[in-house]
Specification:
heterodimer; A: mainly beta; about 5% helix; B: mainly beta; two-stranded antiparallel ribbon; 4 helices; globular
């Protein structure tokens, strides 16, 4: 995360490849399920053996004896509808919820989060020298309407640009845009790769999760 | 620190059985692991293989292998079958004195004479419990430099070598040997390789079950990490890993089974040969033939088939996508995820209106080309949507339908046991506008999700 500060985002997941290296973010939406982005995976038919979801830790290289770290193997990958660029990852065993690991709510189906809603992005990605390397960073952002965010599709959403460089970067993709609504944090967007990292005066772009809630619930129900 | 298991080639979930009703000696002994079984089997001159049943904690010591007559392998989730390499490999190590394969024809195609026969060739070799002179199989009882040989049944040709290859030339290496699946199990300095499924003497993360596509069988040389050559961890506690000396193929250095693309990338992007040269966020890539700002081993001359030209995004090590070393000293590598993926879905065969709830066509395959399951069938997937429960949904045969009003179009249960349902090879009809999604629910209520303790947040700060 460019800009931002270390923070607490207990639904943000670190996806680890077979070498144990962090490569993307994700969000815990159910004790058995994570949502991330398709771009982080080579194939919808990928054999997920060896891939893991790490949660409950604030550091990208947690100590081996970190008591709160949970490393859970990924057992299945499901690709979303073609234009969604979403994937759902099934965990081999349920995550244990505690003060460091929590679920994030899904938005109501087809819900359009209002302009001006307060949101956060979180991840262990590149900071572009803005400090707190290798720690889970959080940046506060505000929703921008699609009308004012030019050239975005209906299944995408934006956050307002800031004067100081702030936003998602390499390694944050797949992570959450969490917005605070009705006393709960809701997964309104998924961070997707875009040109530049947290460029000043440029809006951030995300996949709009509410468009795919029916698919998400269907995958969870059927699998 | 060689393991007794190093002499064996093992398969998980398989059991070797003797098919015939003849009485055959099978000794069963208690054992807690495969290594114990291997020690027991190696101590017996007539033991060639063993079944280790981890549920029963016992091993069956067998006097035959899967290459013997009247044997069958069958699946058994609780069993590991381990067979002595000398009896299984089609190549030989050293001079081949230990070769115990079943080839019985010389290199020019003449049938071998049985070792116990003295006609047409009279000879002094006779079978002992250890020299393996059984049947008319090729053997090397006298340590001939050429390898296994036999006496022939042609009177005028007394003996001939069998043309069996040494293991280090039997399967050659193309490119940097990531697809090498041969049987060399020692390094260039002659050290024995450590089994990939053991963590001693060297602890490592290349467990075979984590890397199912890397062929990490037994203790054979492999290249799971995109090194310059196949390698292995050694059984020498002082030498962690070493390259193996395996003959290079003489054919043009090409990657096998890789399709080259330039405008987009497929799967891991190992075949991407386009000219994108910045990372996802726009950082210029470092040239592959440069060592600044980052030192690295991916030198173009060592990876001739990986297309490491200029500073283009490439995937020489089988990572998740094309990547490069960046020109920022603080950022070593980054993916080039802005390169588009080549379309993976098959071509749409029909179109639907709205959300496809009224679709009544006959397309019966998913966007990935998998055949749909009949709506009335219960295998491979149990069907919640069937014609009886949803008579109005027109659930005929295995045709794509949308009985639940899925906003992403018609779908079906699939014949792939790993994919319960998927969307179909059908696209929205041209000019057919999808209904707008904009809706504002009046009341939102959430259960337990989306809560956190912000006290911890302050403490972290």
């Amino acid at each position: 995360i460019v800009g931002g500060i270390p923070g607490n985002s207990p639904w943000t997941i670190s996806l680890r490849n077979r070498d144990g290296i962090h490569f993307c973010g994700g969000s815990l939406v159910d004790v058995n399920w994570i949502i991330s982005t398709r771009q982080c995976f080579t194939s919808c038919d990928l054999d997920p053996q060896g891939y893991e979801a790490w949660m409950g830790t604030l550091f990208i290289k947690p100590q081996a004896n970190d008591p709160q770290k949970q490393a859970i193997p990924i057992s299945k990958i499901f690709c979303g509808p073609a234009e969604s660029y979403l994937v759902m990852l099934k965990l081999a065993r349920p995550a244990e919820l505690n003060s460091r690991v929590a679920l994030i709510c899904l938005p109501p189906e087809k819900y359009i989060v209002p302009e001006g809603t307060s949101c956060e992005i979180a991840g262990w990605g590149d900071t572009r020298g803005t400090g707190y390397e290798n720690q889970l960073k959080v940046a506060k952002l505000t929703v921008l309407s699609n009308k004012d965010c030019k050239r975005v599709k209906e299944n995408e959403m934006c956050t307002q640009p800031l004067h100081a460089p702030t936003g998602a970067c390499e390694g944050d993709y797949g992570g959450p845009l969490a917005c605070f609504t009705h006393d709960c944090w809701v997964l309104e967007g998924v961070i997707i790769p875009s040109r530049g990292c947290g460029k000043a005066n440029q809006p951030g772009m995300y996949i709009r999760v509410s468009m795919y809630v029916d698919w998400i619930q269907k995958v969870m129900k059927m699998n | 620190q060689s393991s007794p298991l190093n002499k064996y080639q093992c398969s998980k979930g398989v059991q070797l059985m003797y098919r015939s009703h003849e009485v055959h000696t099978v000794r069963t002994q208690a054992a807690t692991n495969r290594v114990d079984c291997a020690s027991l089997c190696s101590a017996l001159s007539d033991c060639r293989a063993f079944n280790f049943n981890w549920q029963a904690q016992s091993c069956q010591l067998l006097a035959w292998t899967e290459h013997s007559a009247n044997t069958d392998t069958q699946q058994n989730a609780y069993n590991n079958l381990c067979q002595k390499k000398d009896y299984i490999r089609n190549c030989f190590v050293g001079k081949g004195e230990n070769y115990r394969g079943t080839k019985s024809v010389t290199k020019s195609g003449i049938t071998c004479q049985h070792w116990k026969s003295k006609f047409p060739q009279d000879h002094r070799h006779s079978m002992t419990p250890t020299n393996g002179l059984e049947e008319n199989y090729c053997r090397n009882p006298d340590g001939d430099e050429i390898g296994p040989w036999c006496y022939t049944i042609k009177e005028n040709i007394r003996h001939e070598d069998c043309g069996i290859k040494k293991c280090d030339v039997d399967v050659c290496v193309t490119c940097n040997g990531e697809d090498y699946r041969g049987f060399v199990d020692y390094t260039k300095s002659g050290r024995e390789c450590q089994r990939w499924d053991l963590q001693s003497p060297h602890k490592h993360h290349y467990q075979p079950e984590k890397y199912p596509d890397k062929g990490l069988n037994d203790n054979y040389c492999r290249n799971p990490d995109g090194s310059v050559h196949p390698w292995c961890y050694t059984t020498d506690p002082n030498v962690e890993r070493e390259h193996c000396n395996i003959q290079k193929c003489t054919e043009k250095h090409r990657l096998r089974n890789v399709e080259f693309t330039t405008k987009c990338f497929k799967k891991h992007g190992v075949g991407y040969r386009g000219t994108v040269n910045t990372t996802t966020s726009g950082i210029p890539c470092q040239r592959w033939d440069s060592q600044t700002p980052h030192n690295h081993n991916f030198l173009p001359e060592n990876y001739e088939c990986k297309g490491l030209e200029e500073n283009y995004c490439r995937n020489p090590d089988g990572s998740e996508a094309p990547w490069c070393f960046t020109t920022l000293p603080a950022m070593r590598v980054a993916f080039c995820l802005q390169i588009k993926r080549c379309p993976e879905d098959i071509e749409a065969e029909d179109c639907y209106h709205g959300n496809g709830k009224s679709y009544n066509g006959k397309v019966a395959k998913t966007r990935k080309g998998i055949t749909c399951q009949k709506w009335t069938d219960e295998t491979p997937h149990k069907s919640e949507f069937n014609p009886k429960a949803y008579p109005e949904a027109d659930l005929q045969e295995n045709y794509c339908r949308n009985p639940d009003g899925d906003s992403h179009g018609p779908w079906c249960y699939t014949m792939d046991p790993n994919t319960k349902f998927d969307y179909c090879a059908i696209k929205p009809c041209a000019g057919d506008l999808k209904p707008s999604i904009i809706e504002n629910p009046e009341k939102i209520e959430f259960d337990e999700c989306g809560k956190r303790s912000d006290r911890m947040d302050n403490r972290a700060r």
